[in-house]
Amino acid sequence: MEQKIAYYGGTFDPIHDGHIKIIKYLLNNNFDKVIIVPTNKNPLKVNNPIANIDHRLNMIKLAIKNIRNVEISLEEVHNINSYTYNTVMKLKEKYNNITLVLGTDIKQNISKWYKYDKLLKQVNFLWITRKDRYKNSININNLPNVSSSEIRVGEKWIYLNKSVLKYIHKNTLYFKEILKYYTNNKSRVIHSINVAKKAHELANKNKIDANKAYIAGYLHDIAKYLDKDIMLNIMENNYNKHLKENWKTYHAFVGSYIVKNKLLINDIDIINAIKYHTTGTSKKMTLFNMIIFLADKVSDERQYENVEKIRYIVNNDIIEAYKYIIKNNYKKFKNNQKDTLLIKAYKYWCGQNEKLN
Q1: Residue 112 and which of 88, 91, 102, 293 are 20 to 30 A apart at CA?
Q2: What φ, ψ does residue 183 adopt, rounded to 5°?
Q3: What are the tens digits of pLDDT across the range 275-327?
Q4: Closest by Cα among 143, 130, 184 to 25
Q5: Residues 93, 101 contacting (CB under 8 angstroms)
Q6: Taking the C-alpha atoms of 173, 64, 103 and 261 in order, what is their torsion angle to the nearest 10 degrees?
Q7: What residue numbers bound the domain in which 314 lies?
Q8: Whole-model pTM?
Q9: Based on the structure, what is the number of domains in the chain?
Q10: Is residue 66 part of a domain?
């Protein structure tokens, strides 16, 4: 009996639960197999995919690992500009009954596709809709309201497969786009990348998990330019006891909240390193936390008085470098702070009576 094939193409940048629900729906509704066709680059789109094709393929494999009767076509993977018509004709050498599965977001441009008129004669069309009905369309109930473009800027990560989520974290995929989205500040993005690199270097040198340090360094300033009302609301609801801190440090606490609750990073080392990267703290200040704290102060683009001296200390002794900065910050701000994390850090690490350099 002739197999009924669903051809499901796209950039899958990244693949998410909406894609998976469509795949499962197709398999449960008369299709014998779904062939996922990742495109290297859509010839009708100006911008290239953010994640390279190898990363996107790996994420697809993770997402469909436990789904039967799904395969990945590599026909368009190695072509700079890929055309659906060419891929369909290649697949028709093996399968005769092919249905092209499409989202309605491309409906207005489909007539521009390469050899569109010939494509119409080779395959059936099936449109996936959320509300509206078209000829040859289906409306899938409870289809997640999520797009890959939203995920690429750090929104709606609850709609990512857990293995895909871990893969994105490990490989820091979309982090640059997330920082652009949250900060809208080019120099802050450059600073964050430099901090990530410095944190990785210092972690390696001190035999600390360098990949985790890179992640924490990359995201440490994610909330730096967040709207002040939004920041205050998060502080009041989650970090009430730290409201006495200088408001310029709020972004560190709010950043740890975003990383945990929006990007779903549950690693306590990363969360705390971001939380304390401006103020420091007392006994909770681990070597990992100190590395992020210091990487922020000595990243390559930093230019201020004594920065070379601090870099020298950092490269030789992380704890001494941390104490050095805490002592100097205490000297600058002690008259304006009462019972803050900086005061507690100074008392714990430096001693109240230690002479300030």
Answers
A1: 91
A2: -100, -30
A3: 999 999 998 999 999 999 999 999 999 999 999 999 999 999 999 999 999 99
A4: 143
A5: no
A6: -40
A7: 174-349
A8: 0.93
A9: 2
A10: yes
